From TrEMBL:
Organism: Oreochromis niloticus
Name the UniProt record assigns to this protein: Mitochondrial cardiolipin hydrolase
Keyword DNA repair found: no
Position of the signal peptide: none
Domain of life of the native organism: Eukaryota
Domain PLD phosphodiesterase: residue ranges: 145-172
GO-annotated cellular components: mitochondrion
This protein's encoding gene: PLD6
Protein family membership: Belongs to the phospholipase D family. MitoPLD/Zucchini subfamily.
Length: 214
């Protein structure tokens, strides 16, 4: 009889313990997912003024015909990019969007280390911002391979990955159907950090100073 009660008590204990462990695990994973950024943005983005993102205290003199105070996919994307404190690595096929260029130049002026790896052919097309970035002293390398450097990803501070179908152009932002994932999951971010370093190393460092696309 005593033995049976002991078995019952022990099994109850085991059940209780596994339930508590499960609860702890659930709480832990909830806290973790609250901490780590994981977002999806779809485009085309609503067209709205993004001036307040660059200058949070908009001057009274600011007048434009676009809607104000609207949160859009594009304004969110700009905020994620502008959250960079120490580094921004860009691996982009096409870069002609003026607002994104302005964001990169602003980070550069704040002392954020910026590296841009881009497609040689597309860096030279009309409207490309690559020459502007180079002139500002930003380190740009063009892919030297015979195929297109077709990536569209950014790594912010080595901890946040922004990747998807979106080229950094006005058409992609305002007209095309596109997607972007923003994630801080180390299992996803780290391979991109590694791949960026590999591609950066593959391309001649002598290019940093050449102005072939200016
Ligand atoms: Zn405005």
């Amino acid at each position: 009889m005593v033995a049976m009660w002991t078995v019952k008590v022990v099994s109850l204990g085991v059940v209780g313990l596994s339930l508590s462990l499960e609860l702890l695990f659930w709480l832990f994973s909830r806290r973790r997912s609250e901490r780590v950024t994981n977002k999806v943005l779809f485009f085309p983005s609503k067209v709205a003024c993004v001036e307040h993102i660059f200058s949070p205290t908009l001057p009274h003199s600011h007048v434009c015909s676009l809607p104000h105070g609207v949160d859009t996919s594009f304004s969110r994307l700009l905020r994620y990019i502008l959250s960079a404190c120490s580094s921004l690595d860009l691996c982009l096929f096409s870069f002609s969007n003026m607002d994104l260029s302005r964001a990169v130049l602003l980070l550069h002026s704040r002392g954020v280390t910026i590296r841009v790896l881009t497609d040689r052919v597309y860096s030279a097309i009309s409207g490309s911002q690559i020459g502007v970035l180079r002139k500002a002293g930003i380190c740009v390398r063009c892919d030297v391979s015979a195929v297109h450097m077709h990536h569209k990803f950014a790594v912010v501070d080595g901890r946040m990955l922004i990747t998807g179908s979106l080229n950094w152009t006005l058409t992609a932002v305002q007209s095309n159907m596109e997607n972007i994932i923003i994630t801080e999951e180390p299992d996803l971010v780290q391979p991109f950090v590694k791949e960026f370093c590999r591609l950066w190393g593959l391309n001649d460092s002598a290019q940093d100073l050449n102005s072939v696309t200016d």
